[in-house]
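S2.1 Query sequence (Aminoglycoside 3'-phosphotransferase)
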Amino acid sequence: MIVSDKLPAGPLAARLSGYRMEQDALGRSTASVFRLEGEGLPALYLKVEEVATFGELADEAARLGWLKASGLPCPEVIARESDGEHNWLLISALPGSDLASASALTPLVRVELLAAALLDLHRLPIASCPFDHRLERRIATAKARMQAGIVDETDFDATRLGKSAEALFAELESRRPGREDLVVAHGDACLPNFITSEKGFSGYIDCSRLGVADRYQDIALACRSIAHNFGEALVQPFLDRYGMPATDPARLDYYRLLDEFF
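Output structure tokens follow.
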């Protein structure tokens, strides 16, 4: 259940009347996420975070609004509230299950749905997207997060466990690719952040990192997520469906390295 001292006390509290709340433990967001259900009421999600320099909820709300205005499916922002100590974001629930959990579908169908969803997103015109996640800005943010001491060194990928954030940041600077193939990227393109139902793809969630970035930002994390959930054998079918049958291993590894800071 939601901790009582995190409950909103303003107008948002009235919107929660009649709902049961259950914490959703899936995902790595710094915000706490609660699913809200009530008899005769539409399912919702409530996110809560402490007010801090690197909060995500304002970013997520802005991106969801932009994505919906761009014609792609995602949760609707219902309400936002802050009391100076906590931020809250109330959003609609999408029908269905995330692609990591949608067991009614075969893994092959799920990776093909992921590829199609990324294609739709990556085809949006970058000139229309106000969110800049090019490497210059993301590396600067990675450095700021490192200096703030919020990079979790215990959560590094297995190949990097035991290294310090400072050592990885030196790699991030020295190995920076010389070019970027820019698209509107999701930013955290893992299977749990894409929802599907029996009617097809339902939409994108956890969009706080959405912005203009190299397409490898999404391809690298998608391939890693597929290998983790379904095994390496389904990475190539995903790439084939996306239209990138051959990839650059160095760029894949670089964007996974960048992800260690977020």
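The first helix runs from residue 11 to 15. The radius of gyration is 19 Å.
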